[in-house]
Design a protein that fits this description.
Immunoglobulin-like, six-stranded mixed sheet, about 525 residues, mainly beta
Length: about 525
């Protein structure tokens, strides 16, 4: 499955709160039935929060999806479970309802639900399952060729052989980012090894400083590798996974990077359990706990160099003014925020040592240099913002800025070494009119899932965006009574809410709404937060 990450980028005059946090998994209870209370004012819909997804064999023609998760309160119930198949992808949506006229206790309610999938008519191959953003895969094996006999024999149906044993054990481990970093002048880091072709790669050794990779789908199969289809799980925030309650036998633990959510690992390669091999066979004895089945992945272009080589070139390209166009009238002493969008058009990485510097004109801030908000690789974009104060005397004022590298050398674009702002300070400047605020932003396909709008990524048009006059709720469920407006993204992926009064607002997108489901699904949010579209 080619899984798209969907981005909601906000440019707003207001604080938009997106609250939430990880919850520990309570003891599951039976799934609440969906009931609508008499006299309900409105029912707010949403998606159930899924904490784990396990695929369990049921028969030769079906499997069971065992889904565990949490409902945000005692007013929220499971509304509907739908299953859609698109080629080798299964999309399962578990929707919820929250009635608006009940007193709710803000305490999570765990649920567990089993969803059967018919597989009898499926061709051999690997299939991906997405349940509200939680991923798993299963594989239907090519059946063995029957030996010739006098009487014709039927080809056995695809199935997996489950090992047997009296006791139960477990297999667990971690999927890590195995890091090989080269220094400014090509020095080889401690985590690197030289390959036969003279290049360098990570060494396949798990080190304490190397981060785990969250959201990687790990498969379990019966017998020696290659084998899948017995169970699947997804790594947690530390990159850890576990297959529990396993009988004694031989198992194959593997990670398939070419399928589903794991495609975000590409480009790169495995360094453990073996180089260029993301699978390992494990012999499990009765009651044995095997907890060191680790996988190391070396991203091709990560980590970024923390320092630049001597021969790199610094340059920037001014893209656009985001606020305060030239000659904007501002009252004396008024505080304002100027924003620009720049592109790194050179070959050096803009590291944490790079600064925004005031170079000439009228200084309208107390500082002469400001740090960049983030590291910017060559070719990427960055939005920078400075909080400034208009002079007290009327007149036209201009401030020129540039960037400076770690050595303090300033640089700019091809035609000018500066980008600037120019304002007109006028005592009679009209203060902002009531109901004149604007909230705008862009929705786009985050192909690499990193939460940044990159130059190679496309905007998404036709998406319905909702505006609510409330702070975004912690449970992520938008009450329909508070939705005051909707907007649809244009060809550039942009939506706009104009003529707004001063207030607190929440901007949200319902991916399973009738307008959005065929545009955004399958997919998941990577910004403003992973899995959160508000």
């Amino acid at each position: 499955m080619s899984k798209r990450y969907l981005l909601l980028l906000l440019a707003s005059l207001f604080w938009l709160a997106a609250c939430g946090g990880a919850e520990s998994e309570p003891t599951p209870t039976s799934t609440p039935a969906a009931t609508r209370q008499p006299g309900s004012i409105a029912a707010a819909s949403g998606l159930a929060s899924v904490t784990s997804l396990t695929i369990a064999p049921d028969s030769d023609t079906s499997i069971n999806l065992v889904i565990k998760g949490n409902l945000p309160d005692n007013c929220t119930v499971i509304d509907e479970t739908t299953v859609q198949q698109n080629g080798t992808d299964f999309l399962v949506a578990i929707t919820t309802l929250q009635t608006a006229d009940l007193e709710c206790t803000p305490s999570v309610v765990p649920f567990e639900q089993t969803v059967p999938l018919a597989i009898g008519d499926l061709a051999p191959g690997t299939y991906a399952v997405d349940v509200n953003g939680s991923m798993a895969t299963f594989t239907i094996q090519i059946p063995p060729t029957a030996e010739p006999t006098v009487a014709p024999t039927e080809t056995p149906a695809p199935t997996a052989t489950v090992p047997t044993g009296d006791g139960v054990g477990s297999i667990s481990g971690q999927v890590i980012h195995d890091i090989c970093a080269l220094g400014e002048n090509g020095e080889v880091g401690d985590g690197c090894v030289e390959l036969d072709d003279g290049s360098y790669s990570a060494d396949g050794i798990l080190r304490p400083a190397e981060p785990g990779l969250e959201g990687v789908v790990v498969d379990l199969g019966a017998g020696d590798c290659p084998s899948t289809g017995l169970a699947s799980t997804v790594t947690d925030s530390q990159g850890q996974y576990e297959f529990a309650e396993l009988p004694a036998g031989v198992y194959c633990v593997s990670v398939t990077v070419e399928a589903g959510k794991n495609e975000r690992l590409i480009p790169g390669g495995w360094t453990a359990p073996e180089r260029d091999n993301g699978s390992v066979s494990i012999t499990l004895f009765d009651n044995e706990v095997v907890d060191d089945v680790n996988f190391g992945w070396d991203y091709q272009f990560l980590p970024l160099l923390s320092a630049n080589p001597d021969n790199c070139r610094d340059a920037l390209f001014f893209v656009e003014d985001l606020t305060i166009p030239d000659d904007t009238a501002i009252r004396p002493g008024e505080i304002f925020v100027k924003r620009w969008r720049l592109q790194n058009s050179g070959t050096c990485i803009w590291t944490s040592e790079y600064q925004i510097v005031f170079v000439s004109g009228d200084q309208m801030g107390s500082e002469t240099s400001y740090p960049l908000p983030e590291m910017v690789p060559a070719g990427e974009f960055v939005d920078i913002a400075l909080t400034l104060v208009a002079p007290l005397e009327e007149g036209t004022y201009r401030a020129d800025y540039s960037l400076a590298n770690g050595a303090g050398v300033t640089f700019g674009g091809a035609d000018s070494d500066t980008f600037w702002l120019q304002i007109v300070v006028d005592e009679s400047a009209t203060p902002p009119e009531p109901n004149s605020a604007v909230i705008s932003g862009v929705v786009w396909a985050d192909d690499d899932g990193d939460g940044s709008f990159d130059s190679f990524e496309d905007p998404i048009d036709g998406v319905e965006v909702r505006l609510s006059n409330q702070v975004c709720p912690a449970d992520g469920i938008i009450n329909a009574d508070f939705v005051v407006a909707t907007a649809t993204t244009d060809e550039e992926g942009r939506y706009t809410f104009a003529d707004l009064p001063a207030d607190s607002y929440c901007v949200s997108i319902a991916p399973f709404g009738p307008t959005n489901v065929n545009i955004l699904i399958p997919g998941d949010w990577s910004y403003p937060a992973q899995g959160v579209g508000l």
